């Protein structure tokens, strides 16, 4: 068996990707992933790690939940959908040792006039990472054609936010994050060689 | 006990035992170690967990940094999303309680990959 590729040690600060939360909420597809997501969040709850959820992650979670409930849950009433979403997000807020942040680093104190520019500084750094992480052409079984396989624009914003929030690793189920591992080490929960 | 990283070679669960006594012969290493008592498990102890287990402080730990203070942002995010709805408190055992909380609204085998890909693409 190969040596572990990634080890997350006690006390590390881990940025949580939306996929981890979606698999935690819904366990009727990949039970193995859902179990890993649950165990991972329990380790945060028991203070082995400090978890970080950004507003960008929450936006992705909420969009995913809306799409899931309409497309597969056949729920049509918006008020009902939003109430279910509120219940799910409440569950996240009830977990100890998870920090909810907009993405502003603790040491960044801009003058009031410049506060609105913060988003631009994140985006500019993300652009530089996007330039480095080009992805590659790859065969997609579902679409039966060659597609671009690589990080999505929001993924790169997650990487920048995780760095600025001084996270040690970014917890995810997405292999694509490996391409940016020199920016932040991905803790890929489905990776058998990741220890956490 | 969450100190130890255990990579299972089978579904058999490790029994509760005196970890400290068992690992007295353990040499700090990043290599998986199989103890004769538990041949179906490969066990790794990270340097930080090792130092914690044996009280050795000279092993460098993850540098302690100032904790993230989310007391303001936590409330701001909640209010942005749900305005005046009751702000949730931290609950003991919340992870267990809310795991799979979406299951009752959805059928089996919903393709989560596709949904989250859409969410990321906007």
Which two chains touch over the largest interface?
Answer: A-B, 74 and 66 residues
Termini Cα gap of chain B: 41 Å
Radius of gyration of chain B, in Å, reads 22 Å
The tally of helices of chain B reads 5
Low-confidence segments of chain A, given as residue ranges, are: none
Task: Output the structural class of chain B.
Answer: mainly alpha
Please state the oligomeric state of the protein chains shown: heterodimer
Order of helices and strands of chain A: EEHHEHHEHEEHEEE
Q: Which regions of chain B contain 5 or more consecutive residues with pLDDT less than 50?
A: 57-61
Give the CA-based shape of chain B: extended
Radius of gyration of chain A: 18 Å
- Strand ordering within the main sheet of chain A: 4-3-2-7-8
Query: Overall mean pLDDT score of chain A?
Result: 88
Number of beta strands of chain B: 2
Total count of helical runs of at least 4 residues of chain A: 6
Helix-strand makeup class of chain A: alpha/beta
User: The biggest beta sheet of chain A, please?
Assistant: 5 strands, parallel
Helicity range of chain B: 25-40%
Proportion in β-strands of chain B: 5-15%
- Shape designation of chain A: globular
- Total count of strands of chain A: 9
What does this structure look like?
The complex is a heterodimer of chains A (196) and B (122). Chain A is of the alpha/beta class. Chain A contains 6 helices and 9 strands, in the order ββααβααβαββαβββ. In chain A, the strands form 3 sheets. Chain A has a 5-stranded parallel β-sheet with strand order 4-3-2-7-8, sandwiched between helices. A two-stranded parallel ribbon of chain A has the order 1-9. A two-stranded antiparallel sheet of chain A has the order 5-6. In chain A, strand 5 and strand 6 form a beta hairpin. The longest helix of chain A is centred in the first third of the chain and has 17 residues. Chain B is built from 5 helices and 2 strands, in the order βαβαααα. Chain B is mostly helical. Chain B has a two-stranded antiparallel ribbon. About 4% of the residues of chain B have low confidence. At the A-B interface, helix 1, helix 2, helix 3, helix 4 and strand 4 of A face helix 2, helix 3, helix 4 and helix 5 of B.
């Amino acid at each position: 068996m190969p040596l572990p590729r990634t080890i997350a040690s006690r006390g590390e600060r881990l940025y949580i990707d939306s996929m981890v939360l979606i698999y935690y909420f819904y366990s009727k597809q990949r039970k193995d992933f859902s179990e890993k997501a649950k165990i991972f969040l329990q380790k945060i709850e028991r203070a082995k790690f400090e978890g970080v959820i950004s507003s960008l992650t929450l936006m992705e979670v909420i969009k995913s939940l809306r799409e899931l409930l309409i497309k597969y849950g056949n729920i049509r009433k918006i008020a009902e959908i939003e109430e279910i979403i509120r219940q799910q997000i409440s569950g996240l807020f009830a977990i100890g040792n998870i920090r909810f942040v907009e993405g502003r680093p603790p040491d960044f104190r801009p003058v009031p006039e410049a506060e609105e520019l913060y988003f631009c500084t994140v985006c500019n750094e993300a652009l530089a990472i996007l330039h480095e992480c080009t992805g590659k052409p790859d065969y997609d079984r579902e679409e039966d054609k060659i597609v671009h396989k690589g990080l999505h624009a929001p993924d790169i914003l997650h990487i920048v936010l995780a760095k600025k929030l001084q996270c040690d690793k970014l917890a995810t189920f997405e292999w694509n994050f490996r391409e940016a591992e020199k920016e932040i080490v991905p803790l890929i929960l489905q990776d058998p060689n990741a220890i956490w | 006990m969450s100190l130890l990283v255990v990579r299972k070679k089978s579904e058999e669960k490790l029994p509760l035992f005196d970890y400290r006594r068992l690992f007295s012969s353990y040499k700090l290493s990043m290599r998986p170690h199989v103890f004769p008592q538990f041949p179906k498990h490969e066990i790794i102890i990270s340097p930080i967990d090792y130092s914690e287990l044996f009280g050795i402080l000279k092993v460098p730990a993850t540098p302690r940094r100032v904790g993230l203070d989310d007391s303001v942002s936590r409330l701001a995010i909640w209010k942005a999303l749900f305005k005046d709805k009751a702000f949730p408190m931290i609950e003991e055992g919340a992870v267990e309680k809310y795991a799979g909380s979406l299951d009752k609204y959805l059928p089996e085998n919903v393709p989560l990959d596709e949904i989250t890909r859409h969410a990321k693409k906007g």
